[in-house]
Amino acid sequence: MTELDSRDPQLFIRSLARGLSVIEAMGGESKGMTLSEVASRCELDRATTRRILLTLVELSYVRADTNRFFLAPRALSLGYAYLSSFPFWEVARPIMTKLVNEVKENCSAATLDGPYAVYVVRIRSDERIVDVSRTVGSRIPAYCTSLGRVLLAAEPTSVQEKLLNELPKVALTPLTVTDNQALMEILAEVKLQGWALVEEELEVGLCSLAVPVHDRRGQVVAALNISVQASRVSSEELRDRYLNSLRGAATVISRAFAAREIV
Question: What whole-number distance in Å separates Cα of residue 195 and Cα of residue 153?
Fold first, then answer.
């Protein structure tokens, strides 16, 4: 029995949950997936998976090509619906743009979605183009990113452990930390110091520094970072040059949240 099957049938629509799990499972698979691959990843039988996929094809959220299935452009509407309903970008964008103009580096903001950090705003410097493949709505592993570690550090220890166990730890670079105990120790340090610095763990050549953004109750609702080329700016320089500016921008965004009472 899967977790979906154990829910109260009076309150939980399993077919809807299964359909959403299929859409999530297909995310990031540019080469598409076979029916068997989708069934295996979602822990569903082939017959159920086939019905779900054909329904999603009929609704234009998925397209079929021979024996493979791909997410269709309409699936983007699900992510945009969230972004349009959560006005973080309206508050954050001008503040982040000002920060980028000041430091001449790229700036991003993200929220936590399970074991992933999801970009909600990205402002690129005209002078420094780093990590151009990731856009608003992209999900990145939280365990090996500065944004993700700030967001994870704000969660209770039990939630941190649960989220770290939900995602297989892959060494994306030779410097990626994949040991859960080591990651828990890093998260404790991040929570204590109030910022996270990650050097070439997500991508070779990419270094980033992140701080939390709070709501009016003091809860962490997002993370804000600056990313640089590691060959050009060392981790020490990144912290010494930009931590104060980054914290200042996060404080302004947090105050703007409180003033507009949007969280």
Answer: 9
Note the pLDDT of residue 162.
93
Q: Give the chain's radius of gyration (CA, Å).
A: 20
Integer Cα distance of 231 and 207 in angstroms: 9
86-260 has the same fold as 14-75: no
CA 90 to each of CA 117, 172, 226, 260: distance values in angstroms, whole numbers, following the listed order:
19, 33, 19, 11
Check: CB of residue 93 under 8 Å from CB of residue 121. yes
State the Cα–Cα distance between residues 56 and 78, nearest whole angstrom: 13
Q: Is the pLDDT of residue 256 over 90?
A: no
Domain 14-75 has CATH 3.80.10.10: no
For the domain 86-260, what is the CATH superfamily, name and number?
GAF domain (3.30.450.40)
Answer yes or no: are the C-beta atoms of 173 and 203 closer than 8 Å. Answer: yes
Task: Give the DSSP letter string of 94-118.
Answer: HHHHHHHHHH-SEEEEEEEETTEEE
E strand or H helix at 119: strand 116-123
More confident: 260 or 58: 58
Task: Tell me what the mean pLDDT of segment 35-45 comes to.
Answer: 89
